[in-house]
Amino acid sequence: MSSTPVSKPSAAQADNMQNPISSNMPEHLSLNKWEDTGFEWAGEIEPTSFERLSAILTTEHEQEKIQLTANLYRRNNVLHLSFKLVGDVWLTCQRCLQPVATDLTDDYDIALLDDESQVRLVNEEQDYLLLDEVITEQSPERLLPLKKLVEDEILLKTPMAPKHDDCEMTIEQFGEIPEEEENENPFAALASLKGKL
Questions:
Q1: Upper half-sphere CA count for residue 131 (Cβ side, 13 Å)
Q2: In the chain, count of helices (H) and strands (E)?
Q3: Contact 137, 143 (CB under 8 A)
Q4: 193: buried, middle or exposed (CB in 10 Å: 19+, 13-18, 0-12)?
Q5: What is the C-alpha to C-alpha distance for residues 105 and 166, in angstroms, rounded to an integer?
Q6: Using an 8 Å Cβ cutoff, are 129 and 109 in contact?
Q7: Which 8-state DSSP code applies to residue 187?
Q8: Tell me: the pLDDT tens digits for 11-44?
Q9: Cα distances (Å, whole numbers) of residue 89 to 65, 94, 155
């Protein structure tokens, strides 16, 4: 491992970079190949390409591609995965059952730690993962599940019960609501016994 710190590009530098737009997001990144030199990827991805996310997407509205810029870099001898998402996904409103857009636009930065001793090298607010917990596939090279990590963050960003901000729940009534009969108080019989005992 290299001890040379690599700084993360600023937002202005990132906007000026000419990353090729690709539609084939890599499933995995080889850490053996990229952890010291860094890796960048930019492209558009279909929300339906994420298996777990696809299960909660509405089919009543066309899903648009999400723009993704990903960057694997090393700072303070700690590996980081940062990425930026721009776009919306369409879910089903839990009140009116109509499609509702959920904005995913955000910047994400996750420290990827070799072991728990590196926790002291990152800020308290920094999200981090232990590589031993993330890399579960047994293979000769260490493969970082890039697509799965991006999908995890998308799922965390989506609400559990999506709804429109100004949504009124539609209620349909079929037939008449029967009036409840007033039942006799079951303790009335006890009241009459109260004086006799």
A1: 20
A2: 6, 10
A3: yes
A4: exposed
A5: 21
A6: no
A7: T
A8: 434 443 444 455 688 999 999 899 889 999 999 9
A9: 9, 15, 11
CA 104-65-19 angle, 5° bins: 90
Residue 119 tokens read as 């926790």
Burial bucket for residue 74 (CB in 10 Å: 0-12, 13-18, 19+): buried
Amino acid code (one letter) for 96: C
Q: Is the pLDDT of residue 174 over 70?
A: no
- Beta pairing class for 127-130 and 106-113: parallel
Rg (CA), the chain: 27
Over residues 74-107, the pLDDT tens digits come to 988 899 999 999 999 999 998 888 999 999 999 9
